[in-house]
Amino acid sequence: MHKVVIPIGPQHPALKEPESFSVTLSGEKIMKFSARLGYNHRGIEKACEERTYIQDVYLTERICGICSHSHSTCFVQAVEEIGAIAVPKRALYIRTLVGELERVHSHLLWLGVAGHEVGFDTLLMYTWRDREIVMDILAMLTGNRVNYGINTIGGVRRDMSPEQGKDILKAMDTLEERTKYYIQVATQETTLIQRLSGVGLLSHDDALKLGAVGPTARASGVDRDVRRDDPYAAYADMKFKVITDNHNDVYGRTLVRMGELMEAYSIIRQTVKNMPDGPLTVKAPRKIPAGEAVSRYEAPRGEDMHYVKANGTEKPERVKVRAPTLANIQTVAKMLENRQLADLPIVIAAIDPCFSCTDRLTGIRQVGKRKRNVLKWEELHEYSIKFYQEHGVDFTNLNNKLTKLLK
Amino acid sequence: MIRPGKMLRQVLKSIFKKPATTKYPFVKATMPDRFRGKLKFYPERCIGCKMCMRDCPAGAIEIVKVGDKAFECYIDLGKCIYCAQCVDSCMKKALESTKEFELAALDREKLKIKYDAKPGEVPKE
Lengths: 407, 125
Ligand code: SF4
Ligand code: SF4
Prior knowledge:
The complex is a heterodimer of chains A (407) and B (125).
Chain A: E1 3-8, E2 20-26, E3 29-36, H1 44-49, H2 53-61, H3 68-82, H4 89-117, H5 121-142, E4 151-152, E5 155-156, H6 162-188, H7 190-196, H8 204-209, H9 214-218, H10 226-229, H11 250-273, E6 291-299, E7 302-310, E8 316-322, H12 324-336, H13 344-350, H14 355-358, E9 364-365, E10 372-373, H15 377-390, H16 396-406
Antiparallel strand pairs in A: 1-2, 2-3, 4-5, 6-7, 7-8, 9-10
Chain B: H1 8-14, E1 39-41, H2 51-55, E2 61-67, E3 70-76, H3 85-89, E4 95-97, E5 112-115
Antiparallel strand pairs in B: 1-4, 2-3, 3-5
The structure holds iron/sulfur cluster (SF4) (2 copies).
One iron/sulfur cluster (SF4) binds next to α3 of chain B.
């Protein structure tokens, strides 16, 4: 049959975030799927190098709107490791608490989106209504619904009062009951099961080979979780199960996320009940000594990784972010091979993608040349001058003035 | 047990329930106590150390010396990300977060606000 290549995105009704995909179709069947990342590149890593460590905490928090706490914790952990800063225990517990609350709101959000993608909008309405409970808890605890601003280098900025602890425990009971109901819906509602089963298959071996992380990997039977394997914050003190599933499909991913919700409630209860007393922060120096560190964090979407290199000044020399979606996006191509086009939205949604977090580097292809090359800063500068001159704008005079002024 | 229409009962029950949404802006929304909204500046407490300017991630705050021990504060609400780092950085408690959140404006210039120094006032310790 004749093959057709269609672009999906950057702007497309099926996508919640702009990203560019190209799909080769034969009839309704997907022959090849490829993602071209970079549309949402915001230059956050470079911006981090221009700012001090304190400022970077807020910048890394804004890498993602949903897992904002994940990114900022991952970053501060790396900085604290380089600076050998011992964070007080109470601060670690509060970080864990906020981290799990974030997982709850993220997974409930995902459940709603997944329902919406398969045309089950009733599920979307109810999960998002229940999600408000955890959003209110986060607002009460930290001050904001998103971008909590709870982390700082050397600890946390807000405390949990005993009354808040009680409110959290009460809210967890309601949420647990609701989640149990959703688990019933997911395991009994035929329309949902039939729509999700066998869609987006990713075998155990493929999940390992493609380096899948988070619920995507765990739904293919990969028993991997940073919280257990390399405990950070207060996870070493927590009792929880790592949820895995052997369905290998979108249905399995749904079950894993619901199971993780139940585990998150239990972790939240443990943190609130066993919260140790003590200070919230230790004084962190403004200048971090030279060194480098890699920090890992189990974000709701999978393992998040930050690399920070310090050079003894107030600003980091290099910050590198590997968001979980970057690890998972490769698996989508595999999941979609020889599948129907109609499965595309839910399969993409099933990895819970976050494209803005993923887009780190843009490859620049020169028109006419097939080779992809990365421009150096000077070349980019020259290119921009030439581009504007061709379009009738000349910055040469201004440029000369500026260089004179700088001298 | 597998059955279709599992949510049907919930849906029917919900018809008789109150909406989960609130009637904002007719009913005013209240913010949590720890909400980080529009900043407030107490000129009499400021000593001009400029730590707030140094730590602001957005470059939204500016402290200008206008006289002997008198400082003015400019905040660009359009740039501010409401992180309240400046409040934490200020040793003299000259800055404070309020619960004010309805800050939209049609003109960028209206987002730039200025807190005047009070001349003649001696800074309190
Ligand atoms: S507001 Fe506070 S931090 Fe800013 S200059 Fe005044 S005293 Fe210093
Ligand atoms: S709240 Fe944050 S962004 Fe706004 S002025 Fe203060 S430090 Fe700057």
